């Protein structure tokens, strides 16, 4: 038992989780989103981009069993742990964090349902509308929404082309937003 908790296998698994989560975060932090596509460079804007890229990862592994299914669950847990830490770093009190976490989880799952529906139907227009509602709700028209939807479709296709085995070994690649 001691070996399972603290042994090499546990360390290797942690390294894979950290590598995958790091790649998801790096994809979400592409400066092009904020500089050229006018995603707000705010905590909420960064949450939107991280949520989108986490959704794409989860969408890729949806329906997988075994290690890939466990990996998907572990990564979503890692995502919400990261969100919790971010709220605390923003100065949200211990009393306020659970309430905010509940709200952010509801936001995440609402978005993923809308994005998944549009992707399943290959409806780039509906995807752009959902992205606009979520990423830039304060503007009447977010002209970059169509470009973002095209990127999401490209990212979905790029992730679909990556083997589950490679992903389970910590290899994940999102396309560049600019191009």
TrEMBL record:
Signal peptide: none annotated. It comes from the Bacteria. Residues 36-171 form the Ubiquinol-cytochrome c chaperone domain. InterPro entries: Ubiq_cyt_c_chap (IPR021150), Ubiqinol_cyt_c_chaperone_CPB3 (IPR007129), Ubq_cyt-c_CBP3-rel (IPR014569). Pfam families: Ubiq_cyt_C_chap. Belongs to the CBP3 family. Belongs to the UPF0174 family. This is Ubiquinol-cytochrome C chaperone family protein. It comes from Mesorhizobium retamae.
């Amino acid at each position: 038992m001691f070996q399972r908790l603290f042994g090499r296998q546990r360390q290797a698994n942690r390294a894979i989780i950290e590598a995958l989560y790091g790649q998801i975060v790096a994809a979400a932090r592409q400066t092009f989103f904020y500089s050229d596509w006018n995603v707000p460079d705010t905590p909420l804007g960064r949450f939107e981009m991280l949520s989108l890229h986490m959704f794409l990862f989860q969408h890729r592994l949806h329906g997988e069993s075994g290690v890939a299914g466990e990996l998907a669950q572990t990564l979503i847990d890692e995502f919400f742990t990261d969100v919790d830490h971010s709220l605390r770093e923003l100065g949200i009190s211990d009393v306020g964090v659970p309430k905010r976490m509940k709200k952010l989880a509801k936001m995440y799952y609402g978005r993923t349902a809308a994005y998944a529906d549009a992707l399943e139907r290959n409806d780039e227009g509906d995807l752009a509308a959902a992205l606009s509602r979520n990423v830039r709700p304060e503007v009447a028209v977010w002209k970059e929404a169509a470009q973002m939807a095209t990127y999401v479709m490209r990212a979905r296709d790029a992730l679909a082309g990556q083997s589950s085995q490679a992903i389970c070994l910590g290899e994940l690649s999102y396309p560049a937003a600019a191009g």
